[in-house]
Design a protein that fits this description.
Length: 272
Amino acid sequence: MNFRAVRAVMRKDLRLLTRSKPVLIPLVVVPLLFFVLMPLAVGLGAPVLAGGGAAVKGLSEMLAQVSPVLRGQLAEHSPAQQAVLLMGMYLLAPIFLIVPTMVSSVIAADSFAGEKERQTLEALAYSPITDRELFLAKVAVAWLPAVLLSLLGFVVYGAMLNTSAWPVMERVFFPNVTWVLLALWVAPAVAALALGATVFVSSRVKTFQEAFQLGGVVVLPVILLVVGQAAGVVYLSVALAAVLGLVVWALALGLLLFGARSFRRDTVLARG
């Protein structure tokens, strides 16, 4: 394995990535929304519940919908604390997974399909690098930023939530074990799964937009998890997070192994 050639392709793809507005804009806007604005809104909005009235009634209606296990865990807290814990610790937890999913999909679509669209893949066809080394470089250049950004987002989210909700909680309450599992186990797995799906799609389409839109269907299970937890159908416990990560890793590795074995530059060029 020629790791020098792998690193050279990664540096080239990262340079192209930083010059592409269609790629950079979602990579900045979506993490800013999820990791900064949402936890701030939860923490700063919770004191409204201390005054009672319609806000407390709305919270009671939300609590009536969630899992009885979760409702029992929140019962000992005040309404304002319940709002912080319900939104910040539980309902927003699955949404955290959208960021690594989106980041790896965007970068992989640009790295594979975008290369064909810019007609720069022909140059790589004659470079002294094997198909396996090229595939590894393009997978790494999408997966590593997704994982690093999600870990950074995990830290920023915790800082925003603990700081903004301090007047209500009066202690550092984030993260719990489920969130640590999401950040260290599940998020890298969903980034790999989104990457595998986008690689599979990218080899069969001609443009970045087609690859991103088709590969983006892997976000749907995450959205279903958000809806299911809000409706009380699913409770994202420590055990479920551990099993979820295991299943997603198995699917992701299967897709990536298939992609590695079927990736051929000449075939991709012929389809383009």
